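Contributing new records

If you add data, match the layout below exactly. Sequence lines come first and carry their own label; structure lines follow with theirs. Keep one chain per record. Anything else will be rejected by the validation script.
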Amino acid sequence: MNWHTEWNYWKALEKVISESYEILHFQKYSEDYLTGVYHSSRGRDPWYGIMFEVGLSKKESVCLFVERGWEDVYFGLTVQHNGDRSVTRNSAHKHLEEQIADLCDWPEEELWLGGCWCKPAVDFESFEEENSLMMTNTKHLHETVGKHWEQIQQFIKDCGF
């Protein structure tokens, strides 16, 4: 049930995002990622999701990344060049970090300029939150995806992209 609910979430989110943006393949969710998280006892890699370009900074791609980790689903801005997100730490992008700081739930860190938790919260790791459990219902899943997409679009706009 959990695997399929998460898969359906990513598929529905990809559908709405792809109407406006081209999805990048870097760290993109896949059957292999999900299977590894749900069915492996070692080497689990929950850091995947959907990434798409929203602008450029110093000829490098500024991307919005919706990601799943060990906690709730979140999103934020990162910079990548040919799939290498370590360029986010380049001082040439410091202005972006400062530009979005007040919009973020959490500040810059290694591969992020900053980001926010999706609301309503979704925790695919434990499925303990009511909203996560309710997403087994297709209607509720699509409502949650819609709310997340609205939040992401507003963040992109507020960031100036």
